[in-house]
Amino acid sequence: MLKNYFKIAWRNLYRNKAFSAINIAGLAVGMAGTILIYTWIQHQLSYDQFHANKGTLYKLWLRSADTTGQIYCSDITSGPLGAALKQEFPEVQDVSRIYWPIDRLFSYRDKIIKAEGRDVDKPFLTMFSFPLIAGDPKHALDEVNSVVITESLARKLFDNESPMYKVINIDKKQTCQITGVMKDLPYNTEFKFDYLVSLAANENFYSAGNNWNNNTYQTFVQLKPGVDVKQLGQKIADINERHTDAVKAQLFLHPITQWHLYSNFENGKATGGLIDVVRLVALIGGLILLVACINFMNLSTARSEKRAKEVGVRKVMGAQKMSLVAQFLSESILIAIVAGMLALILVALCLPAFNRFTQENLTVNYLSPVFIVGMLGFIVLTGALAGSYPAFFLSAFKPVKVLKGKFREGHHWFTPRKVLVVVQFTVAIVMVVSTLVVYRQIQFAQQRDSGYVKNNLIDIGIEGDMRKNYDLIKHDLIQSGAATGVSQNSFSVTQPASTSNSYRWTGENAEQPDIEFTRFNTTGDFISTLGIKLVQGRDIDLAMHPSDTAAVLLNETAVKQMQLKNPLGHAIYFSRMGDKPITVVGVFKDFIIGSPYSPVSPMIVHGLRNWNYNMVVRLNAHNSTAKNLQLAGDVFKKYNPSYPFEYKFVDQRYAEKFANEVKTGTLAALFAGLTIFISCLGLFGLAAYMAENRSKEIGIRRVLGASVSSVIQLLTTEFVVLVVIALAIATPIGWWVMHNWLQNYTYHVTVGWFTFAMAGVTAILLAVGTVSMQAVRAANANPVDSMRAE
């Protein structure tokens, strides 16, 4: 029986080649899109899920309130926090601090290679599952001069030699021994490094004696099995306040399983992040498959009249309704099988381009038993879903009416087919609206005044002899014409790297919450080089004013939250500097150092020569960029010959802040396009069927003098009305969806009427264009042929 079902199904497909092709193409595109989306979602959900201890690994975060009551969260913690947790709380099994990524120069014999890595505490390798192919993870970082490298870095340094226990030179000043070789990191991890060195070697330099008031590290803890995390979180919340009166930030635990997906915090709690994109994309995947299935349903029911006599004869011959349902479901499953094979081909062809779109490294293991079983289930489910309505619809025909030729669908305003077309275009319009809003939001944030001039600005990490020769480098860069300004600072202005709330000042309101300041250091020319607007006072300049080591700059937000009416000359006290008074010498306009979608935080800039790791250079706008970089390269080669000249454009670093939103917009645009394509493909098939079904009517109208345009209008009006109805339904849905999405951003656009107008016009034009192709063909057909056919 089953064999007979598929044989009849194959004959029907072959007999109606055009409609079969449209059905298969629509389902194939929908299934391919769904497979790509599933692959992307699976990849996002797999981040850092491979760690054996994932259920007990947590990152420590701090939450603190500003003077407005807004709660901010930061994952940068103090140096002594980790040791205190392990000592005071038996629930904590291990702790590891991690310092910021650092580029270091590795030298071995005649090879010199630059690599990015992390300073970590010894337990890091046992807490996290980054397996070593050589060395013991328990003891690889025992010594301060030990280093663990990845196998890729090992190949670059040692070729085919065994790297174990080889002695290398780091940064031309520190001799270290290779004590472990690690497998290259997988793509699905938040960690990025080529080497690990013992934090003990540089700890005092980084944190100035492990001061509780200075937040420098990311701190990770591994809890013992069976620990009540909620109860422990309550116990450790006030540990900072118990160790120092200056710090009033509460501590909380953030699990490893949420690091990648939950990175946004609101009022001290994780509220979302990439998980919102994952949910959105999952919804889009379901909608794409739904639209493809609707196509199948529409085309199958549209051709119901041609199958009606077949159903009538089968019923007269004794066929039961369920056997007819099985027959039509087997046809839809057969189409789904063909579409599924075509979808796999499309996935293989489109995956490289999809990876470029999403900036991921996705792969599909077609031979995996899990994938094969899942794909078979997916095909059967899709076929059953797509064929369910046509199967029950066709099997319900009354044989007496059918055989008498009285079966007609009629021209009713509300038919299942029209409802499905409305659903299709409602989905398409909502997706178009979403895409437009996402891109408007990105454009809005990109156009927000950054507060400094990003063009012709480069960041250069300070390494080797650059700090020692800074004054000479600065002089030669300007004298050579390569630069018009140079400033030595603690970090890049594109990323907040150090925070502290241990500042006090005269006249401070004791009842207001502590202010979490973004800290920055500079040796001078900070304002002029970055192109920041100075509101009051002057810039810091240690060369001209040596006493500026006791001077600071404040941004406008800091002045406002500190409630300073006359900030210039005001005394501020910082516990890390021994609570000696430091003086405000200038106030500058707010500039964006964190997220462009969030308010600017209070910022304080110290005049200091120590703890500066970045040089920012304003290139000469009168020269070409290539010439400036060549001249600058010659200067750095002269004063720092052991290191390659490496730089990053600040405007490119700033653009990276929009990466997640751009990815969301790209995915939305890509799959909105797929949805519209599938919907238009279905319209094309319906229009072809309608033109074929009304060929006699069109022939008579043409004979009686009807123009081509009037015939086109006749055939397109019905579909335009359906699209307008879809627009009316999609408008409140699209507004609600995107309004809620925009609430994740402090600075955002509004969902205006123009967005819906654009989406509606686009949908109507596409619908008219698609239907018109068949309408023009039908209107220009010879009416004699259609009349003779009768």
Summarize it:
This protein is an alpha+beta fold and 790 residues long.
What does this structure look like?
The structure is a single chain. By secondary structure, the chain is of the alpha+beta class. 48% of the residues lie in helices and 18% in strands. It has 24 helices and 27 strands. Strands 18, 19, 20, 21, 22, 23, 24 and 25 form an 8-stranded mixed β-sheet that branches. Strands 1, 2, 3, 4, 12 and 13 form a 6-stranded antiparallel β-sheet that branches. Strands 5-6-11-8-10-9 form a 6-stranded mixed β-barrel. Strand 23 and strand 24 (581-588) form a beta hairpin.
Name its key features:
single chain; 790 residues; alpha+beta; 4 domains; 6-stranded antiparallel beta sheet; elongated
Sequence-ordered SSE layout with sheet pairings:
Elements: H1 2-15, H2 17-45, E1 57-65, E2 71-74, E3 77-78, H3 81-88, E4 92-98, E5 102-108, E6 111-120, H4 124-127, E7 132-134, E8 146-150, H5 151-158, E9 167-170, E10 174-182, E11 195-198, H6 203-207, E12 215-223, H7 229-236, H8 239-243, E13 250-255, E14 264-266, E15 269-272, H9 274-302, H10 304-316, H11 321-358, H12 369-395, H13 399-403, H14 416-447, E16 457-461, H15 470-479, E17 483-489, E18 499-500, E19 503-505, E20 517-522, H16 526-530, E21 534-537, E22 551-555, H17 556-562, E23 571-574, E24 581-588, E25 603-607, E26 614-619, H18 625-639, E27 648-649, H19 650-655, H20 659-693, H21 695-703, H22 708-742, H23 753-779, H24 783-789
Parallel strand pairs: 6-11, 8-10, 20-25, 22-24
Antiparallel strand pairs: 1-2, 1-12, 1-13, 3-12, 4-12, 5-6, 5-9, 7-10, 8-11, 9-10, 14-15, 16-26, 16-27, 17-26, 18-20, 19-23, 21-24, 22-25, 23-24
Helix pairs in contact: 1-11, 2-9, 2-11, 2-20, 9-12, 9-14, 9-20, 11-12, 14-20, 14-22, 14-23, 15-18, 20-23, 21-24, 22-23
